[in-house]
Fold this protein.
Amino acid sequence: MRPLSHALTAALFMLTALVPPAAAQTEFTYQGALKNAGQPYAGSADLAFALWDAQSAGAQISTTVRVDDVAVQGGLFTCQIDFGVTPFADAPRWLEIHVRTPHDPTDTAPFDTLAPRQVLSRSPYSIQTRGIYVDDAGRIGIGTTAPQHELDIEGLRPVLNITATENHVTARPTLSFTGAPGPSIFQALGAIDFHDDTGAFRASIMANKSGPDAAQFNFITSDGGQSRLQIYETLVRAYDRLELSRSIDLSRFVSLSDGGDAQPSTGGILVLGDEDGLNLALDDNELMARNNHATSTLYLNRDGGDVRFGSHFIPPIFAYGRVNINGTLMSASSNVAAIDHSGDGYYDITIPGISPSATVIVTSGYTQSGRWTSFLITSGNILRLITGRTDELFPSDWPLSFVVINP
């Protein structure tokens, strides 16, 4: 039989219902017409199809797909072709067809190559999906033909925008994550991971359950180097719109690490403040105030107010001091104004603002025979401390320490 001439491509479209779901992802139906000496051919035929990157010459970029013993009636035939998705990388493709008539069960007769190759063009509706690529595993690429995940988006500056169009106060764009079922009350709910240009993990925002009805939000950074959390000052312009202004770098004020035991110079799991200046360090059993890598005074409600532990509270200390035996102040709070050694065993201390009903704790040095102490708050903001030996009737000098707690 003389070579056949390729006459017409009648249709090129994706199958949906006529093939199994797995194959329907990439298989399409090809319908064509064969003529022999200008007349429609009738009989059987073996067909072979291949994709090329040019109308002539060029390179074959697909495997050759064989469809044998195809019925041709009135010159028309229909067959299914599946090249997979790899050859279709959003670039022009030409279909080359090889025909052998009639069907050769011995597969020894040569094929005739029909010319020219046919360009494969998009159908009108598929134009709206240009730039979207789906590989054999069902992974979707937008801007890439090599997706590594269920959905990969690549571009110079890719943006995923979600816009709500309903004119209603409750209308809001939503990005929703649904966690997988699991037995743990701390089951993961979702995460957004951040990688650098080499693919290395740098940070993650993660949510997980925290008990039967609660949840927690976690900020995670990669090991090594210095990691920072920046929070922006915001200006509310509408009910659901925030405008970002200058950023606040919390790394100057807050640091989290596995620093272990808090030491005067370094350490601590949570550090609040400048590590080279004033800061507050917390480890698993200690709270420490520090200043320039040395210990500092830790104040609790320095300007007033109660410090409570459960149902109990510690009232703030109003004044304190330590008196030498000769009546001089060895140390004292800044509000202790003066001291007068008015007689043996008598020490009159001026403390402006002291309350007549203040609680005073007085301690003295101890001798073998023991000592007693007492106090009296008089007019003129005077705290009188009195001490003596337990085996003597009259007061006598001795070092004292005192703490005043105003009601």
About this structure: Residues 1-24, 233-246 have pLDDT under 50 and may be disordered. The chain has one helix and 31 strands.
